[in-house]
Amino acid sequence: MQRMFMRRVGLALLLMLAATALTFWLVTAAPGNVAALIAERAAGAGADGEMIAKIADDLGLNDPLPVRYARWLGDALTGDFGVSLRTGKPMAEEFAERIPMTLALLAGGGVLALVLSLAMGIAGAASNGGIVDRVLHGLALVGASTPNFFFAAMLVIVFSVWLGMVPTFGVAGLTSWLLPWITIALFPASVLARVVRVNMQDTMSRPFATTGFAKGLTRSAVLLREALPNIAIPYMTTFGAQFTLMIIGAIVVERVFGLNGVGAFFIEAIRFRDFIGMQAILTLFVVFFVSINLLVDLLAMLADPRLRRPRKA
Amino acid sequence: MSRHSQNGPIYEVEGLVIDLYTPTVSVRAVDGAGFYVAPGETLAIVGESGSGKTVMTLGPLGLLPEGVAVDLRGTARADGKDILSMSPTDLSRLRGGFFGVIFQDPMSALNPMLKIGPQLAEQARRFAGLSAEEAKKEAVSLLARSGIPDPEDRYDRYPHELSGGMLQRAMIALALAARPRVLIADEPTTALDATVQAQILALIRQIQKEDGIAVILITHDIGAVSVLADRVAVLYAGQVAEEGSAIDVLTAPVHPYTRGLLASVPDFRSNNATGTKEIPGIPPNQAQLEPGCRFADRCELVQPQCRTHRPPLVKVGAGPVPHRVACPVVMAAEGIVTHD
Amino acid sequence: MKNWPWAILAPAVIFVLIGIFSPWIMTHDPAAQDYGALLQGPSGAHWLGTDYLGRDMFSRIIGGARTSLVAMAFVLMAALAIGVVIGSFAGYVGGKTELVLISVIDIALALPSLVIALALMGVFAGENFSWMSDYWKMIVALTLAWWANYARMSRAVVVAELQQPYIEAARVMGASHIWIFTRHILPHVLGLVVVYASADAGALVLAIATLSFLGLGVAPPTPEWGQMLVDGMSYIEENPALVIIPGLALTAVVVSFNLLGEAFALQKVPRAVRGRFLARKKAARAAEEAARKEVEA
């Protein structure tokens, strides 16, 4: 199994390289003339051809693409992601300021999604076709269909505007994290709740569930002790996928609630054509996604007894 | 060969009618059937696939798969107590501690995510009242008793690490861990190789002799019946066609279906040159409710009344073990008299 | 599929119909501003009220349905076409080509679709792409972000089908590659892909709305629900309807598509049967028996 593990890690690294190379190519091929942009920002309309050419030369923008990528990669590996075209600050600094915010959002959202989805899925399975099951199914369906910006807006309307319980913008203290966390967790929790519920249903109809009953276990015991371990792997895989999708939720939430995280920066970078910023953040994203997927793959491999100890005889 | 305890049957079921419903299918799996088994004896319930053997035996215990709605009517008693009116908690305890069940395909009947040994130990703890340590020792000794070599090692294994035969033995051990009084074996050998089949059957017989428990063997394998059974009940399309001692039913069957069934089994020892004979036709569609005898469409002796009047199960012969048959036609034809 | 509640398709069907017939359903020009009637509630003249520029909300919602529908249809068809072609080709040809294509697909799947779309919108912001309108930038970005999943699916189906014995039989009989592919394999591919796409449609509508919400999708005055919502955020205290109405419309349409997808996916999972189901069946059975007894008597 060690070899499978190393192979996955290797593939993941390759993927990161390829993906960042692709984004680099796209981002740098697009803008036409980064040097002109920089010159414009620095000297206003008075930037002339000579100045632009000098900047281009300084930054090595006329070198062939693979060279530029290699240079960028070398810099990136030492933590130098360039300087944002929009804010003028080194990207590393922006990262240091903003990553904690986004991480906090993702962590809180992730925990909330985990807890909610397990609770809803198991409750539905226990009810097994009863009214609790059907109501939860409906909630999960609506939750997976509601746009997160709409949900955030509704939460703001209800809790901030009407009830005045929670501040509308920014975060100050624990309660102000609630709305952003709930918004981010909505979609993953709903999808995962369905995963739990459907997999529990499938597992409960398998022969070993009947054996569980034959052992004298009550239905709750069979649900929790025989069925639940069997949904661990599909749950983990889906959780990993949903966790990476939460970055989109973070982007929206940071915008709606005015939080200065990585997601908000990304959108600003796009709107203001901050290509260096975009490249840096996309790299961050790629590393994040590939790592999470790798982690989930590994955990799934560990969790399956069939993979941990392959058949002997 | 059979021993009737003075206290009477330990698991008995009467007048059972079981309807099964899914969103696409409605079936009357059991249509007024019943059986009983006494301590220390082995009852074989025989029939084709779909005859209702499993539903009839496991249905009263609530051990039918989820996803199917069950409507069950009749009476069922275990150790004299009415199980159909028991609370779910009591019924759970009964299922675990009083009954031990062995299912058909051990590879799918055991949870792939759980180790084997701890499951046995837990049964011993919960139902036999052993401490954690004692339970583990008991589990290991059960595995050994079931013929599993190197039981301490096997204790920590997962199902996929054992072969089919070993797994079935493990399941037998699991069924016995709670020290049950009734062992139900649902087609225990169907999924196994021929040589292993014989070993498993021998194991069951040995356990019965040593522990004096009642055994219900659900099977369509007549060979297994002849090896293990004290009494036999023959089921067709949810109705009991014939029941009695193994000797009576296997050597002197009365019901046309039983006769047909036995005639269709190859017998290597006989010098009979006619070979085997199959029963024409196919089993009836149990989604339709028909009055009368379910075997009517395939029976050589069918009469008009067979299709309108349900043949009653009546006692024939005067032996110590009641021999009952549900076919007035054959009885009339052969001058067999009822001893009711 | 027999016991399907066909009613669940209603919002999706309505969405498509409204989208197609929108010019005839609208009561006003969705872009027409009327400073005399700002932020009004529902009335006889304006069935769903007006927005902050006096535009009729009802017509804007109807118009938004068309915008979303057209955009979604474009993207879906393009992504399907590209994905199925690339994926099927990879699966059928095999060898090094397949390896290369698989790598491309994996890279394209290394990020969630919406993030790719956002990044592409950023790329398209550059001068080299200024010839594209914002709308087409969005369509292309989403298409490029969406095709990879279908490619992966198509390839998987093609690989699985190629292993079937009947393919070998067809080859022996002298069928050409094109024939084998179009006649035998493509139907399987399309079967799976279309099912997935029907549920994916909802995700795509959401993606379009999200892009517009972030200011990177459809631009005003073209009505689009996500964009109407972001505009309405500024007036959330005065008239929350500007936010609520497009939001509800989005939710309803996506719910419907999701139900469609779920109905397909759940065909193999046994349904929970309980209480009322059993009671109904018992009653039916009892009625059957009673009817039979009457006939006999």
TrEMBL record, chain A:
Q: Where in the cell is it found?
A: Cell membrane
Under CDD domains, the record lists: TM_PBP2
Q: How does it sit in the membrane?
A: Multi-pass membrane protein
* Single biological process term from Gene Ontology: transmembrane transport
Q: Residue ranges of the ABC transmembrane type-1 domain? A: 99-300
User: Keywords of this protein's UniProt record, alphabetized?
Assistant: Cell membrane, Membrane, Transmembrane, Transmembrane helix, Transport
Q: Name one Pfam family in it.
A: BPD_transp_1_N
Q: Which family does it belong to?
A: Belongs to the binding-protein-dependent transport system permease family.
> Which protein, by its recorded name, is this?
ABC transporter permease
Q: What is the lineage of its organism?
A: Bacteria, Pseudomonadati, Pseudomonadota, Alphaproteobacteria, Rhodobacterales
From TrEMBL, chain B:
Give the way it sits in the membrane.
Answer: Peripheral membrane protein
Instruction: Report the transmembrane regions from the record.
Output: none
The record ties this protein, via SUPFAM superfamilies, to:
P-loop containing nucleoside triphosphate hydrolases
What Pfam families does the record tag this protein with?
A: ABC_tran, oligo_HPY
Q: State the protein's name.
A: ABC transporter ATP-binding protein
Q: Which Gene3D superfamilies match?
A: P-loop containing nucleotide triphosphate hydrolases
Q: Which CDD domains match?
A: ABC_NikE_OppD_transporters
Instruction: Family membership, please give it.
Output: Belongs to the ABC transporter superfamily.
Entry's Gene Ontology BP terms: peptide transport; transmembrane transport
To which species is this protein native?
Pseudotabrizicola algicola
Give the matching InterPro entries: AAA+_ATPase, ABC_Ni/Peptide_Import, ABC_transporter-like_ATP-bd, ABC_transporter-like_CS, Oligopep_ABC_C, P-loop_NTPase
Give a GO molecular function annotation for the protein: ATP binding
Instruction: Say if the entry is tagged with keyword NADP.
Output: no
Residue ranges constituting the ABC transporter domain according to the UniProt record: 15-262
Does Cell membrane show up as a keyword for this record? Answer: yes
Compartments, as annotated in UniProt = Cell inner membrane
Key words of the record: ATP-binding, Cell membrane, Membrane, Nucleotide-binding, Transport
Gene Ontology, cellular component aspect: plasma membrane
- The domain of life for this entry's organism is Bacteria
Automatic annotation (TrEMBL), chain C:
Q: Which residues form the ABC transmembrane type-1 domain?
A: 65-261
**What name does the UniProt record give this protein?**
ABC transporter permease
Q: What is its main location?
A: membrane
Which UniProt keyword terms apply here? Answer: Cell membrane, Membrane, Peptide transport, Protein transport, Transmembrane, Transmembrane helix, Transport
The way this protein sits in the membrane is described as:
Multi-pass membrane protein
- Where in or outside the cell? Cell membrane
CDD domains in UniProt: TM_PBP2 (cd06261)
Q: Which InterPro entries match?
A: BP-dependent_transpt_permease, MetI-like, MetI-like_sf
Among PROSITE patterns, the record links this protein to:
ABC_TM1
The keyword Transmembrane belongs to this UniProt entry's keyword annotation: yes
Q: Give the record's GO biological process terms.
A: peptide transport; protein transport; transmembrane transport
- Indicate the transmembrane segments per the record: 6-26, 69-93, 99-123, 135-152, 241-266
Q: Which GO terms describe its cellular component?
A: plasma membrane
Organism equals Pseudotabrizicola algicola
The record's family statement is: Belongs to the binding-protein-dependent transport system permease family.
Q: Recite the lineage of the species.
A: Bacteria, Pseudomonadati, Pseudomonadota, Alphaproteobacteria, Rhodobacterales
Q: One Pfam family, short name please?
A: BPD_transp_1
What top-level branch of life does the organism fall under? Bacteria
